[in-house]
Amino acid sequence: MPVTPHRPGPNEVREEFALMTGNASNHRTVAVIGGGQAGLSISYWLQQRGIDHLVFEKRTAAHTWETQRWDTFCLVTPNWQCQLPGHPYEGADPDGFMKKDEIVRYLKGFVAKVNPPIREGVSVTRVAPRAEGGFDVATSEGDFTADEIVVASGGYHTPIIPRMAEKLPKSVTQIHSEQYRNPAQLPEGAVMVVGSGQSGAQIAEDLHLAGRKVHLAIGDAPRCARFYRGRDVVAWLADMGYYEMGVDEHPLREGVRDNTNHYVTGRDGGRDIDLRKFASEGMELFGALEDFEHGELRFRDNLARSLDAADQTYNGINAAIDKHIAEAGVEAPPPSRYEPVWTPGEPRLSLDLAASGIASVIWCIGFRPDFRWLDVSVFNGAGHPKHRRGVTAHPGVSFIGLPWLHTWGSGRFGAVGRDAEHVVAKIAERLGSERAPLAMAG
């Protein structure tokens, strides 16, 4: 009578592979690098599928929201968009915007629900493919091996501070946006904020509302309305399907990943950020900061163009909402168009540092990615990973939590869980097909 050959189960297969690699105690099927909301979402879905894994986090789970945000920080998207897997927002204010302490509590609740297998305080120093398959994972706690790698460390690693900062006098305090907490931490005197993306615009507002003299060197960030025609703009865009649009459907295709986010705020229940209004109230606006020479800050002649471009985007988004309302036959208050409340005069291309009383500079010009520890050829010339919805061309290497990984919400609480589910499904497919020959061996 023929005997049906024994086909090892998943745990037996993992043990067999671990023994083949000579590292049974430190082998995992999946190594997840990063313990923020992206890595935790991966852990959630891996647990749903019963796939063993280990999360490496160099600090503590989801720490950045507590350690790298200013005191008045709040979400810029409404709370109802917080949809981490198994952990949707369930508070009393779905249309509001969680403040820093609320965000931290929300995330700590997520950590408790996921209860991930995590090594906190452990840095990953190198990941490299093994000749026999899988990956070597070198960490500050020792060496591990894994069949699959999920990079969940985001794309914001190294704060950008230009070399020109070295020219500024030692008497001027310089910090990056990730170090800013509140106006009281800065010395007395005026503050130069460099950059007008979400962080720069909101930090400039925070200082302005505190009564500090602010000089703002703006960039090319667009802006949008907080509320329009009776609703949050985010709600209109959700109805229009914009948050479901994938990179492949976007007119800019992968170029959208290089876009700067619109500046707006959820502070005090949510409102527009209008740099022109700030200027009319005494904030000094300049074009992009280019250099510091002979005691003077030098600026590009682009202030008027940048303000106009930001307003054009603002009005363009509202016009798209107008079209949607008309086509859908939705009842809504009448449309409107933003008209400038302030316009710059003659371009000011330089500013005497000492005469202006500037005592501190806050660099709000973003971060650079740093994936030097990942010794796998999956990067483009700018050092960004090449992938399709987080899955790279190198078998076993995936990314999660990057801006526009798939949709606009990929780098936020709104869609990172859905992206993680997709990545884990692809991992499960690979494990199922690639383990079959190994399971039948011998």
Automatic annotation (TrEMBL):
GO molecular function, one term: monooxygenase activity
Lineage top rank: taxon: Bacteria
A Pfam family annotated for this UniProt entry: Pyr_redox_3
SUPFAM superfamilies in the cross-refs: FAD/NAD(P)-binding domain
Record's keyword terms, sorted: Oxidoreductase
Protein name: FAD-dependent oxidoreductase
Lineage, top ranks: Bacteria, Pseudomonadati, Pseudomonadota, Alphaproteobacteria, Hyphomicrobiales
